[in-house]
Amino acid sequence: MAKSIKTQLREIAEAEKITDKQKALIIAQSEAMGVEFVERGKCGNCYKDQAVRLWAILAEKDEKKNKSRRYLLRPGKDVFWKNIRVNATLSDDELAGLLENGFPRQFFARIDGVDL
Predict the structure, then answer these.
(1) In this predicted model, which residue has the larger pLDDT, 8 or 113?
(2) Per-domain residue ranges for the chain?
(3) What 3 state SS string does the chain have?
């Protein structure tokens, strides 16, 4: 399974040395998100700093999105149940339907607006 962009950004921020591929990812992600990035020559820290900045922006967007959800799976849950892939990409209605059909409650962090 491919790593999420947030995971890749965290790895870059924690890396001892930044690769050219990671630098390209930082530049491309900055452009995609409309976040200014000034490359400073052979500076490795500027890429790490930008990775942290981008990660924080994505984390804030995720938090805002999650606050509006009625149903929320526990972080990192990605399981197959009755030939259905159950992960954070499912809508509230889809998750509610799975619950009604017996999907285990233990995988949820929020059910019908109530945090567990």
Answers:
(1) 8
(2) 5-67, 72-115
(3) CCCCHHHHHHHHHHCCCCCHHHHHHHHHHHHHHCCCCCCCCCCCHHHHHHHHHHHHHHHHHHHHHHHCCCCEECCCCCEEECCEEECCCCCHHHHHHHHHCCCCHHHEEEECCEEC
